[in-house]
Amino acid sequence: MAPQGSPAPLEFGGPLGAAALMLLLPATMFHLLLVVRSGPARLLGPPPHLPGLDALWSPRALLLWLAWLGLQAALYLLPARKVAEGQELKDKSRLQYPINGFQALVLTAVLVGLGVSVGLPLGALPDMLLPLAFAATLIAFIFSLLLYLKAQVAPASALAPGGNSGNPVYDFFLGRELNPRVSFLDFKYFCELRPGLIGWVLINLALLTQEAKLRGSPSLAMWLVNGFQLLYVGDALWYEEAVLTTMDITHDGFGFMLVFGDLAWVPFTYSLQAQFLLHHPQVLGLPMASTICLINAIGYYIFRGANSQKNTFRKNPSDPRVADLETISTATGRKLLVSGWWGMVRHPNYLGDLIMALAWSLPCGVSHLLPYFYLLYFTALLVHREARDERQCLQKYGLAWQEYCRRVPYRILPYVY
Ligand SMILES: NC(=O)C1=CN([C@@H]2O[C@H](COP(=O)(O)OP(=O)(O)OC[C@H]3O[C@@H](n4cnc5c(N)ncnc54)[C@H](OP(=O)(O)O)[C@@H]3O)[C@@H](O)[C@H]2O)C=CC1
Ligand SMILES: CC(C)CCC[C@@H](C)[C@H]1CC=C2C3=C(CC[C@@]21C)[C@@]1(C)CC[C@H](O)C(C)(C)[C@@H]1CC3
């Protein structure tokens, strides 16, 4: 069943673009995993060798990944400190979501700590990244197919605005159903924040442990990368409720793009800097380390300040922390902030995120482009995401959005873009 009304415009280059991305994204991930451990570690060079199926396929890795998903699902289903309501849906209902992501992170840390104390070989994880990534990719394809089939029997009101073009390749990629769930387990919300994000910091920790084993102690650069990215993941889970207003949850269907992004792309490519440091140790002096910490702190300050200001305002515009900010009224009854963070550029949170991305790469030195892959990819992702969001906001708010763009002319970087 397709949703009623005019069909949504095709994004990501339509069916051809979607098909290309479905090949290109896993290929890029495997390329990165292979080159990072090679001597030259060239981002644009060929991988040292092409792995055979025996290097990729491992039933142990598949079982490990399934056990990880099972553990995270069990932690998700534990009693939560709060149950939050999502945005209003087409049928005027609101879904409920457990707020216990930070609790899941802490419990995972406790379980891993206990495991290590009884001999769990955490340091073996770095050698399993290739088969683990292969297992995650396989799971992503199968899971996306099941979600696609599930959407065939979903009511029209449960379908996403995009992802229902009638072209199976495009719809499989974008995702047909907006909030697929079984009982209280909301697959998109679960995958966006739990297995991938927590898996990312666990992989980082394993790389740090392995570096300590190889070189006597973890390097300062490895500590910084681990610390910065743990802060980022801890922050995402602490402010978990805020994810309910992101376009991934409110607008995009749950298809291959997000399933693969959440379960494979995030843990295996976002940990690239720590992987690089294990294979290419860097010496970092204290003055440089302090400068990088300052850059990360500035990025985090902007990112958190902007996200919290918007979330507070959306929850309660008369909250004293945002009540004095200047706003524009829109025909929908909602207002837009035009002062504070959201009066500087139209996406101050992206700016903060990008500054942090730079700080995560700098500990890896400037001799290689590879550790800057995240910064390059993330810039492209956010520029594209910003354009998608602008389109949606223009549709939602019309003239009021045009007025906002006139008053706040820059998108991400003041006076530049
Ligand atoms: N690490 C990663 O891989 C990724 C991280 N991110 C991060 O996720 C976070 C969320 O990003 P994202 O979901 O893209 O978008 P935003 O959090 O920027 O949300 C955009 C929405 O905010 C509302 N809005 C826009 N301008 C204003 C304004 N002036 N006043 C009030 N509300 C406004 C609009 O929705 P409405 O009016 O309906 O409320 C708009 O659709 C960001 O910090 C981003 O950096 C994102 C993608 C990937
Ligand atoms: C693989 C493709 C190129 C695209 C996949 C994109 C996904 C990896 C990202 C889309 C939006 C994301 C968000 C986060 C992680 C990456 C994905 C899933 C986020 C959970 C990271 C932590 C942040 O604090 C956040 C604001 C909660 C993020 C929300 C969006």
Automatic annotation (TrEMBL):
Protein family per UniProt: Belongs to the ERG4/ERG24 family.
Membrane disposition: Multi-pass membrane protein
GO annotation (BP), single: cholesterol biosynthetic process
Name assigned to this protein: Delta(14)-sterol reductase TM7SF2
Catalytic activity reported: 5alpha-cholest-8,14-dien-3beta-ol + NADPH + H(+) = 5alpha-cholest-8-en-3beta-ol + NADP(+); 4,4-dimethyl-5alpha-cholesta-8,24-dien-3beta-ol + NADP(+) = 4,4-dimethyl-5alpha-cholesta-8,14,24-trien-3beta-ol + NADPH + H(+); 4,4-dimethyl-8,14-cholestadien-3beta-ol + NADPH + H(+) = 4,4-dimethyl-5alpha-cholest-8-en-3beta-ol + NADP(+)
PANTHER family membership: DELTA(14)-STEROL REDUCTASE, DELTA(14)-STEROL REDUCTASE TM7SF2
Source domain of life: Eukaryota
Gene responsible for this protein: TM7SF2
GO cellular component: endoplasmic reticulum membrane; nuclear inner membrane
